[in-house]
């Protein structure tokens, strides 16, 4: 059994229900989530990265309560998601002020609480172009990254615009070694992932089990080939559950799916244990600055 696992892209609570006009997209099922997190603990998980940020239901009290009642360490995030989920303040404030908000979340604490943000993200883009407001968020994120040294974690829509995100951040002198690209496997193109990895970023396989986006067999094969080619230091994983119906009690795959279903799949096609340790344990700890025992 692998111990000391970190899930790198989750939403302990999130609310996209208004924009999506679907109440299922309000994930606020505290007791059910708690139950699943306790099960994760039994399966060797110790940390969760929550990438819910400003405007999509970030709730520091909720997360702190979850942390307290499960004993899992939960890291929180700052920044803004993507259009049409950006709150008014992204329009109203200038880039410097947006950056300062992120910096304050990282240095002082979120919403007046003593819990600080550890990540900038998930900041995102859509399918075709990065909009002006999204650029404003990425610009502020680059400033905040330079000031604080934290990682930026991004959302790509079905894997699109990965290079465009990196070009934009690179032009603003952001550190691409401290960038995690989300959802890029969904473009279903291994060469594309390789070309992104060559720019120094982490690639996150973070929608594991969402077969409607991409079958897990393909995800597993990508991971196997990338590990064999020497990229295991740059890969991380998560399930990215965002809906009530994703939880096990409601008929979804549940958080444990990654460990109970996907890991056996990886092992079956010959992904070595040493690579799994890197992806699930060592790489996240390096990103989080947690020392190995
Ligand atoms: Zn997400």
Q: What is the radius of gyration computed over CA atoms, rounded to a whole number of angstroms?
A: 18 Å
Largest sheet: 8 strands, parallel
Intertermini distance: 17 Å
Overall 3D form: globular
Q: Quickly count the domains.
A: 1
Strand order of the largest sheet: 1-4-5-6-7-8-9-10
CATH class term? Alpha Beta
What is the count of helical runs?
11
Query: Looking at this structure, what is the CATH superfamily?
Result: Metal-dependent hydrolases
According to CATH, the fold-level topology is: TIM Barrel
Bound molecules: zinc ion
Beta strand %: 15-25%
In round numbers, the mean pLDDT is: 97
Description:
By secondary structure, this protein is of the alpha/beta class. It has a single domain, classed as Metal-dependent hydrolases (TIM Barrel, Alpha-Beta Barrel), CATH 3.20.20. The protein has helices at 17-20, 30-42, 60-70, 88-92, 95-107, 132-148, 162-171, 190-197, 216-228, 257-268, 273-288, and strands spanning 5-10, 14-15, 26-27, 45-50, 73-78, 117-124, 151-155, 179-182, 202-205, 235-237. The protein has an eight-stranded parallel beta sheet with strand order 1-4-5-6-7-8-9-10. Strands 2-3 form a two-stranded antiparallel sheet. Helix 7 links the parallel strand 7 and strand 8 (179-182). The chain is globular, with a radius of gyration of 18 Å.
């Amino acid at each position: 059994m692998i111990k000391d696992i970190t899930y790198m892209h989750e939403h302990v609570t999130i609310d996209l229900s208004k924009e999506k006009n679907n109440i299922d997209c309000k994930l606020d099922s505290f007791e059910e989530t708690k139950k699943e997190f306790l099960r994760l603990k039994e399966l060797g998980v110790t940390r969760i990265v929550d990438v819910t940020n400003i405007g999509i239901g970030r709730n520091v009290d909720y997360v702190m309560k979850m942390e307290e009642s499960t004993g899992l360490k939960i890291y929180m995030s700052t920044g803004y998601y993507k259009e049409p989920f950006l709150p008014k303040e992204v329009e109203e404030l200038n880039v410097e002020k947006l950056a300062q908000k992120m910096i304050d979340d990282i240095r002082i604490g979120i919403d007046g609480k003593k819990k600080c943000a550890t990540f900038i993200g998930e900041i995102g883009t859509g399918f075709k172009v990065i909009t002006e407001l999204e650029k404003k968020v990425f610009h502020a994120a680059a400033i905040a990254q330079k000031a604080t040294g934290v990682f930026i974690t991004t959302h790509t829509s079905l894997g699109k615009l990965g290079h465009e995100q990196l070009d934009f951040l690179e032009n603003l002198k952001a550190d691409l070694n401290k960038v995690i690209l989300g959802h890029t496997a969904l473009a279903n193109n291994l060469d594309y992932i390789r070309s992104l990895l060559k720019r120094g970023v982490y690639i996150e396989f973070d929608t594991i089990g969402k077969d409607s986006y991409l079958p897990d067999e393909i995800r597993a094969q990508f991971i196997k080939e990338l590990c064999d080619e020497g990229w295991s230091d740059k890969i991380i994983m998560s399930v990215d559950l965002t809906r009530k119906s994703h939880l096990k009690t409601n008929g979804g795959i549940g958080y444990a799916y990654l460990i109970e279903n996907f890991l056996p799949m990886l092992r079956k096609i010959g992904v070595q244990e040493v690579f799994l340790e890197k992806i699930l344990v060592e790489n996240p700890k390096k990103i989080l600055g947690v020392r190995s025992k």
